[in-house]
Each structure stands twice: as structure tokens, then as C-alpha cells.
Design brief:
Distance between the termini of chain A: 28 Å
CATH class of the largest domain in chain A: Alpha Beta
Number of domains of chain A: 2
Radius of gyration of chain A: 21 Å
Largest sheet of chain A: 8 strands, mixed
Structural class of chain A: alpha/beta
Strand content of chain A: 15-25%
Number of strands of chain A: 15
Shape of chain A: globular
Strand order of the largest sheet of chain A: 3-4-2-1-5-6-8-7
Oligomer: homotetramer
Chain lengths: ~375, ~375, ~375, ~375
């Protein structure tokens, strides 16, 4: 692909040079959908223009580079993308290259294996898999993880911070290991945290979370599920009472299995999640006090947008943005609440939340490179 | 359009002639999506080959005919369709033509106005609008109906039978007026009736019905909602706590507003409804006794298919069929149940349910012309 | 799946019994998309109600049956479908079962291997693959076929009839082996044959065929191409100057490579083909004489519908029908013609054309079971 | 919508302040799809951060503002967007506000009426409609324009520059009136100009341009054509031999009607155009010399990307980018060429080409705000 535009990149770089940092980042697992979005965000991140990220493929020898835009043609034309390559890698190389922060967009088995080594070598890590999100062993069982050194894994797990910047900003800033949240979990946790922290929810009847996600959530591997003929013009529920993101809801919202129920569905669209959440209120509420509860909770959260009731979020309003949009509707008797929460599963549900976490870890404003 | 195939239609007709009836039907409002499906079903209905339906447009003079296949090109090639015309009409004409059974695929205001007249003239009616579905005046308020003769309307309302063949078969068979159910309502009522009638549901926490429908449910009128740019690659909730089908749930399932909650969503697909229904059980259940409850209730219901748990229905399995598919998943503790119910909103949710009702009214097997 | 409807099937069967034949059919390769449509058509074919088709899977032992509706849930509820099984098979079994006509919906290598054996055992064959469509060895090279017995293969090839009923009806009626046409080829050949046979085309500039097909044309195997994320919201050209259907155009329309050019594209829809065909006329034409040419050619062809110019076919008008729709637009100077041809690639482009061929081979009207 | 992010906008602004210009822009007709994209591009244009654009609605009184993000919710969260309003306007206001450059994203009748007035008042104009693209009166007839002052209109027309930066960069830089090209035209003209200027095309047989566009090209008005039910799962050709963009092809490529033919189709996707273009070469070519011809022509064109044969552009690779991608395939005999050209109809086909023109008019690099 022709890349005359590379000529002009220096203008952009120079213009921002006063803001440059020395943080060196690397992504392992750039070939998936979240990896592509993460590459896009890091390549144009204003603080990283002097220290462009490394893109890493298979572990082992430092193999010959494949062009990033051969794997992701849609990144072509983005400044610095056409020159970028994806290489084999090993730990010595990362240290030699001076990598400070490692993003793992890898299967959870790999993340579980690599994170202890990365921390031991002085790297900080943002892990996009589910490997380190869950403190409770029972919840974690669904991932079938096998730790070579169980004691070490327990120590690492103990220091992992769940990477929801709106809930754990200060802890993330100091963390060596950030476990980036699941996409469904993010849409639900952000919708429920304000009301739960304010003790406004009647938990006796349980909270119902009916979520719907686009096909990118099912991954890049060609399978019967992701075949166009099965996904298009269709809708299906799956993993009822058994989805892996359930544990995140229990732990982050401090609920029991009886108190929250989550059903995912596969939508015939490329990307976006909409969660419809059904809550009984402890006391009758008004639209005003619900609105005030959300507004106050997210007053300092630039990537969460609260819609004015009766307006509700739609998937189209968040796709290809870094926002989570939240709206609600209150029953006429003020006792039942429907919350609608939307985000782009590859962005606020994955890559842009990872960048938000990096920003906090580096001491920058959390929206750098995201607005 | 070339129609050499008309030549061969007689073979088909003759072959079935022993089964022909003398029932004469007419459809008012054939131009919409439900009307088109109804036309398709009646045109190929084995009992109606000698008495093809009349297709009626504007009320008033018996105006010049428009070709049915000019309005609905997709019907072309169907036996008898290319010769069919849609005409203006009036009551005298219907009587002169010997119409016995009138299908109204008209706005609810029109249906409310015309049904008393039709009954007075000795016609039986299947009304596909919401005009006559609700007995309770409060529930009906959402339709903003104005009756010229309130006493007459009350009498007619009192004899209207809700057209759910699985629930009210015998009453439908004798009815002069059948109020064909709403599409969302059908998917929910059929999913819940077995458990509710068996007193298996704990109603204290309320039932949650999260429904998703294709765009044909929003009608044929071009609006911002139905514009491709707004519907495609999107999902949105609407009419939260205020959808008109709610009253049908309350009346048919004998529940209060506190006991059931319904939220519709607009899916980016042409047709199909999937309802995800959340129920707490009065006592712990097993997969076997839930399955048995559904199987027993629908043992004689050929158009309801019960899936074997853990298999769940999908929209693709019911689109362009006359079935309602129902499946479920029980929580590990046996206390919470997720029911998934799917149908084609234009067929079992409208036109084919109307034909099923006609079959019962005529004394035929309910599946005639539907399998 | 519940199948109370099976009870009522006998009514349907008895009603039609006078028309039943003794022809026994079998399908090998029922698991693909064309196979599913073929199964649907044969199961409800009025002539085959006494001799329902065999559905055959792997060659070898007569293995235990898998339910047809487990492979194709969308067939469930169709009369006789829920009881049908797909079994392993071998040649002795076919003879013992009295199979007369074998449909091969198999890869071309398999069809090439099996057809000589089938003919030797007295079976007639409709082959849906490309194995036997091409007489010219050079054209056939694209399929990389290897014949164990080249002389036998040449003899079989010589008697194969290209299964376009509109062009070769009488030969098909007598054929032992019918090579069912490609989907793209059908849309193009039917659009061009009338004008070419009437010598109305100026071939010096070549005919351009720009075709677009839905994803089902790419087959059921999950691949990057058929992944929802790559197919949705996209359009791409492929196999430019190299698509395997080109040879059928050359042979059936008796053209050279310089005289016709074909470019396929992948559309983001499940099914349907639209071919836009650009022709220069030998002499200036009028809309009337072009229309007359098409009308005359297809006067006796019930499954080809000629639209009245300026109306043009659309994919929506043919999807899930057995028709090929053809329309055209003539340039103001009468010298250049754009022909638009549409069909459902799985029906008139595959399964329903195969049934049309079976009808002719059995001496029935070509539309039996197709209208 | 909550907009805490506004707080941080000043950081961004200050950082770039050295690059700010004093150019004041305004958009009339921001409510459509192209208008929304233009608003997005101008709001984040690095040179315009001190002089944010005016968004103008109805002509007349300077009416009360409507929030830009109420019209286009997807712009919310973009820096400066949530504070922006769309106001009524008049000519005096534009002068008082110091507007230098006016973008007209208005119907062609409006653009035809307003441009002479704008020029008379010293404004420069980029017009996105078809009003001023065509010099030849015969070609222009398709727009049915009525000029109040024909002589004035002729003068204005004479100085209008066709806004294809790759073809007319120097003239655009000096122009008072730039007629921004049509979306289809851009995809075709950029694909053909290199070969035509190099006299490599045999024009005797004519060039065939088979183009396919997403639904946004049909505009924001809800019509039967843009209804989801008609657009989804469909493909149709339209305006054969009569599309308004044809005149641009004739004038810009200096061809006669016999030498080029253009057929547009409506794709079931939101955005993107793919044109498949069929060319006969004057002399046999090689892949290398065709590639060299494109490469040389676009060596200095940063927004045109030439793919290496045999790779071909796809719509997914250009959607939401400012690029036009061009690729080709040469026939084995070297005489026939298929060129595939893709762009986003709302960006390189409309809004980003308009910004590219603004950049040239302002003396900035043509890619400012576009990479």
C-alpha cells in the first residue's frame, strides 16, 4: 500500500514533542480485534509519539517482522501504522528494548503463565484476558487455570487490581498488575455501582441483567457461531447461568449468585453491547433522585455519559467511541427501575479501558489519547 | 410480470377439490406486512381454492383494482396471486359477494369502528389490531379509542374472544369476533401460561420479560425509526413501562402490574421476536418437571414446539415458519428459570395465528394451510 | 423437538395419493446449504409422498442415523422432516432400497469419482457440483479433476447433459446424468441466451457480467471469508478473470474468452444473486423488440419471469423463490443494453433447478413441487 | 448528556495553539449525513481550534440554537461538540461573525441560489451539492436548475472549480467557489484519470462502471427506498443510463456518452462505495506498467492508496477513513483491465474531500485534520 502520508507524520510528532514521555509499551497478541483497537489507540496516543509501541507475536525467537497492516488492513494510513511490524519476542528482548508496560491481549492461559514472569522482570502489566480478574477461587474455576507455582500465583493474584478506572482509580495508579475488565462486566458494573453503593437497591428479588453483544465479542476465529449465515438475521441467548463474566459482577458489586443474574445474547452486528438491567428499589425513588445518584457518582468520570431520562442510550451512539452511556426509566410507582447501559465491547469494553488504565498508571490524565 | 405458471394452477386446484369449502374470506388492509403474509397464506390455503379471498383497500366506492403483486412483488409467482387485485369496497359489496369471514389488518381506530357494523351484517371477524384485545378499560386507554356508540361497543367487547388458539380454542371456534393477539404478547403468554396455570411461579418478585423484535414490527411507514441508517448495526430499548402489549399480558396471564414487567427492543433484522423471560419458582424445580409441564400443556398444540433443555430457540429457527418455539434453562439451585420464546412476528405473531383462528372458526384442523 | 404435527401428516398424504409416483430418490451431501434446500423441496414434493427421499451422509458402512433436523433445525416442522435421518451408505444399499435417482450435493472430486459407478449400477444422477458441467478439457482444468479411468470418464462426460431446463429440456428428459448448473452461470446464461440466439449482440466489444452473491454461495465451512466480521458491512470482488463458472458461460453461450468477462462479488446478505450484464447490440434496438425477444424465448418457461422495462428485478423479489427474474434497460440511442438478472443461489441457482431437472427426467411437469 | 470531558479540552487547545489560524468557517445544512461528518472533521481540525465553525440551520432570523448533539448524538463527547449549537442565520450575521469560508451541505437548488450571493459578499464557498459541478448546460439539465439571474449564474459557473484535489489542486487553492465532487464520481474519476491521461485506454468499446453504494448515499429522509425492510438483505440497480453523476464523468474525464457507462446499485450497508470498472487497453499491458502508471500519478496524493495487484480494495478497508483505495486485475492476455475503487461516500466522497479542498484554499497541507 502506498504511504506518501508517512512524509507528513513528522509535523504531527514535532508539534506535540513537548508532551512526549519516555514510557515504552508493548502489546502481545495484537492480531485479535481488541489488539487491533489497542494498536490504533497507542499509535496515535499523544504521549507515546517518541516511544511507539512494540507489537509482539509468537513467543520464542525474535523472528522476522510481519507488517501490522497486513494483519489489520484497516489500520493502514494511520500515522506510523504502515511502518510497524509484528515480531516474535522473548523476555530478554523486552528488557533490552526498555519496555516498561506490557499489554497482554492473549488467551487467559497465556496471561496466567506470563504475568508472574513479567512482574519478576520489573514490567508493569495490563492484562486484557480474564486470567487475573477474580480473587475468589470458586469464581475463577470457570477458567480452568493451572498454575505452575500456586504460591507465586496467589501472591500475584493478591496484588492484581481490577481495572475499572471509575471504581479503582487510585489503586490502578499504583498497580503493577491491572486486570482489565470484561466487556459485559463493564457495561453492568458501571450501571449498578452507583445505586448499590448508595444502598438504593432491594436485593431480595435479585437483579436481572439481560445483555446483548455484537459478533466481535465472539472472537476472530472462524467458527459456526461466527459464520455469517448463523449470525446474520438472528438472535440467540447463550451461556445462561454460566457465563464467565458473572464472577466479576459478584466480586465487584459484592453480591451473591442469588442477588444477580446475567444472560448474554449474540446480536447480528459487528460491535457494541447493550445491557438492560432490572432493579427493584429499596424505597420508592423519583427520576430526579436516581438521576442525581448517577450524576454524582460519575461527576469526575469523563468516559461515562449519563443520559437524561427519558432518553436512553443506543448502541449506535457508542460504537467506535470510548464512552459507556447509561440511562434509565423508572416505573410509575417509583419502585422498579430499568437501566440501559451501552458501550463498544472492543473499546470501553476492552482496548480503550486498557489505555485509560495505562494513563492512570503513568500519572497522566485518564482521557489522554481517548477524546 | 410473465405468468405462464398460471396455466398449471388448475392441476393443483383439481387435485384438492374434494377438500374445498364454501367459506368466503376477505382481507381489509392487505398493504402492510401482516396483510401480505395473510394474503400469501389464504391464497394457498387448501380449503379456499374454490373461494379465493377478496383483497380490499380503501372503504367507499368499489374502485378499480390494483394488482396485488404491484403492492407486494414478492407474492408474484404464488398460485393465483398474479391475477389478484385489491379493490375499494363497501358493506353492501361484501354481502353481495357472500363474504363470511372478514380479516381486519387495519389500524386499531378503524377496527374499533368497523367491527360492530361487520357483526351486525352477519360477518364473522378476525381483527389483527389491538382494538378488541383488552377487556379492561384502564388497559385499553393506551389505544385512545373513541366509540360512537359506547353501549354497543361494550356489548361487542364482551363477546370478543382473545385469539390465542392454545389457550382459548373452544371459545374461538364459536366466536363471532376474534381479537388476534399482539406479536410480543404471543411470545410471552405462550411461554408463561403453562407454569402460571400450574402455580409454579413465585410472583412476589415479579416476572421480567425482555423482548427483542425485528424491524417489520415497526410497520411499513418510512420513519426515522425504520430508516436503514438508524436501524442497522444498532439495538435500542423503547416504550419501557409503557408498551401497548402489556395489557394483554396482564389480562391473559391474570397478573398485576407489579407481577410482570415487559421491555421491548428493536433488533437490526427484518423479522422475528425473541423474548427472554425471567421467573422465580415457587418451589425448587428440576429440568425434568419444568420440561414435563411445558410438554403436557402443549401436547395437543401443533404450532408450539418445546425444545429439550439445554437447547434454546433462536430467531433463525422460527423465521418464515408458523411456530412458536420455547426453551428454558434452570439455575443450578432450581429456583430461577430463564425461558426463551421465539416466533416470527408476522406469522405466529400475526398472520398465521389469524389463519389458525379461521381454521378453528370454520371447524377445520387448526393447522390447515399452515404446515 | 415436539412433533405433534406428525399426527396430521397422513391427511395430507392421503389427499394427494392419486398423484403419487414410485420414483425413489436419495441425496448424498445433505449437510450443506444446497442440500438443505433440496431436502426441503423433496420432502414436500407432491409426487414423492409415498417414496420419501433417502438422506445419505458418509460413504461406507450403513451407519446409525443422525436426525435431519439436528443438522438443519430450520427444517423442523416440515411434514416428514422430524422423522427423517441421515445415514451412512454404500452402493449395495442404494440398489437394495430401490433408489432410481441420485442427487449429488457433494464436492466436485467426489462427484467425479462416484458418477461412473452410479451410472454403471443403473442409477440416474443429478449432480450439483461442477464436476461434469464442462465438455472442454481446458475449461475443466480449473477443477483439477483426476480420473481413475480416463476413458470411462470421457464416455460419461460425453453423455452428461447441462441441466438448464430452459435450454436443454428434451435432452434432460432422457439423460442419465444431468450436470446441474452453477448459480452465477444460471443467472447469466438465462439473461443472455435469448439475445445471443437471436444474433442481436455485437460481440466485438465483449459482454461484461458484474455479479454479486450472498454469503451462502461461499459454503458452510467457517473461514475468514465467511466470518461475520469480514462479510458484514462489506463488499469485495474476487476471482477476477479466474472464476470456475466462466467455462459454463463459454460453452453454453458458445463464446470465446474475449467475448465475455465475469466478475463475482461477495454481498453482505445470506442469499441471492444479482448479475448486471452489459451488452452492445448489433443493431439499434427498441425496448419493445428487446422485450419481445425475452418474452418469446421464455413463453413456455414457468420459472423465468421477465419484468416489464423500466422495472428491474431486485434480490428481495427472488429470495426464497424458485424463479429467475430478468429485466433490462436500453440506452437512449438503442445501442447499449443493461440486463439485470436475479435468482436465489440456493434455489434456482441450485436445489430447485435440480428438482426441475428431476421433474423432466421423471416425465412430470417441470414445476411440480416448485410453485 | 454529561460532559465532564469539556474540562480537559483546554489542554488540547493550548498544546496546539502555535498552529492556529484565523480562518472562520460555517456549515449550512449540518443536519444531513455529510453535514455530520463535516462537523466532526472541522471540530477537531487542528487549525480551527481558535475559530470553531458556525453551524447554520434555516435561513432567516438568527433563531435560538438547537444543540448539535441533539441532532447528531454520535458527535457527543467529541471535543467542543457538546457545547455547539445550530442556529438560524442570514447574510449580515455571517459578515458580522467574520466568516471567511462557507460550506454548503444543502440541496442543489439552494446552493445554486446562495452561491452568487455568498461570493458577492466576499465569502469563499465549498459547495457539496451538484449545483456547480457541471460546465455543460446539457449535462446540468438533469438538476432542473432555475437561475434568477442567468448571466450572473453563468459568470459564477465559469469560475467554479471542480473540487478534486488530485486533479485540480492549484486551481482549488485560488478558487472562490469549489464544487465538491459526487461520491460515485470521485470513486470512478480517480480510478480512470491515470490511464486516460496516459492514453492507455481503448475507448471504442466504452468503459463500464458498475458501482455499489451504501444506504447513506440515499439521504436521511425516510422513504420506501431507505426503509430497513426494503434495503436490508437486498441489492438493486437504479437510475440506469440516467444517474446525475454521469455528467461529472464526461466532463472530468473528457469522454462522450458512448465512451463511458455508469450503473449505480444500492447496497444493504450503511456506508461505503465500491466501483468495478471495466476497461479495454489500447495496447497490451503488464501488471507492472499498470501499477507504475497509478503509482506515478498518485505519488504526491496522500489520500489515494494504490493496492499492489493482485490485492484488491474492499469497502471495509476504507469505511470511516479519508482514503480512496484503488486496485486492479489484468486479464491473462494483457488487454482487459478490471479496476476496483473504494471510498467512504460520506468522507472522501463528500466531507473529507471538502476539508481537503478547504486546506488547499487556506494554504495548508491538504491532509491537515485528515490523518
Amino acid at each position: 500500500m502506498h504511504s506518501a502520508q508517512a512524509k507528513y507524520a513528522y509535523v504531527w510528532r514535532r508539534r506535540l514533542s513537548d508532551a512526549f514521555s519516555t514510557l515504552r509499551t508493548a502489546i502481545v497478541g495484537v492480531s485479535g480485534y481488541s489488539g487491533a483497537e489497542l494498536a490504533r489507540l497507542l499509535l496515535r496516543h499523544p504521549r507515546l509519539q517518541n516511544t511507539l509501541p512494540l507489537f509482539l507475536g509468537h513467543y520464542g525467537t525474535e523472528s522476522r517482522s510481519v507488517a501490522l497492516t497486513d494483519i489489520h488492513p484497516q489500520l493502514s494510513g494511520l500515522p506510523n501504522a504502515d511502518d510497524a511490524g509484528v515480531t516474535g519476542w522473548n523476555w530478554n528482548q523486552l528488557q533490552r528494548e526498555g519496555v516498561d508496560l506490557l499489554f497482554l491481549a492473549t488467551p487467559h492461559e497465556q496471561s496466567r503463565e506470563w504475568v508472574p514472569e513479567a512482574l519478576a522482570r520489573g514490567l508493569r502489566v495490563v492484562d486484557l484476558s480474564g486470567a487475573w480478574r477474580l480473587r475468589d477461587e470458586t469464581n475463577r474455576a470457570v477458567y480452568k487455570l493451572h498454575d505452575a507455582d500456586a504460591a507465586l500465583a496467589a501472591t500475584v493474584q493478591a496484588e492484581a487490581v481490577y481495572g475499572s478506572p471509575e471504581l479503582h482509580g487510585p489503586a490502578i495508579a499504583k498497580a503493577r498488575l491491572v486486570a482489565n475488565p470484561g466487556c459485559y462486566s463493564t457495561s453492568i458494573i458501571l450501571a449498578l455501582a452507583p445505586l448499590l453503593r448508595a444502598n438504593m437497591v432491594d436485593l431480595d428479588c435479585g437483579i436481572i441483567c439481560d445483555s446483548k453483544s455484537g459478533v466481535s465479542g465472539a472472537g476472530k476465529a472462524p467458527t459456526p457461531t461466527t459464520h455469517f449465515m448463523n449470525a446474520a438475521d438472528n438472535l440467540s441467548a447463550y451461556a445462561v447461568f454460566g457465563h464467565r463474566h458473572t464472577g466479576e459482577l459478584l466480586e465487584q458489586l459484592q453480591l451473591t449468585e442469588n442477588q444477580i443474574q446475567f444472560t448474554p445474547h449474540l446480536l447480528p452486528i459487528p460491535r457494541g453491547i447493550l445491557s438492560t438491567i432490572y432493579v427493584r428499589l429499596a424505597d420508592s425513588g423519583t427520576t430526579e433522585n436516581i438521576q442525581a445518584c448517577f450524576d454524582a457518582f460519575y461527576a469526575e468520570a469523563p468516559l461515562v455519559r449519563i443520559r437524561r431520562s427519558p432518553a436512553l442510550p443506543q448502541i449506535q451512539h457508542v460504537v467506535r467511541t470510548n464512552f459507556c452511556d447509561i440511562g434509565f426509566s423508572l416505573s410509575p410507582d417509583g419502585k422498579r427501575l430499568v437501566i440501559v447501559s451501552c458501550l463498544d465491547n472492543l473499546l470501553k469494553g476492552a482496548a480503550s479501558q486498557a489505555v485509560q488504565n495505562m494513563n492512570l498508571m503513568a500519572g497522566w490524565h485518564e482521557t489522554e489519547g481517548l477524546l
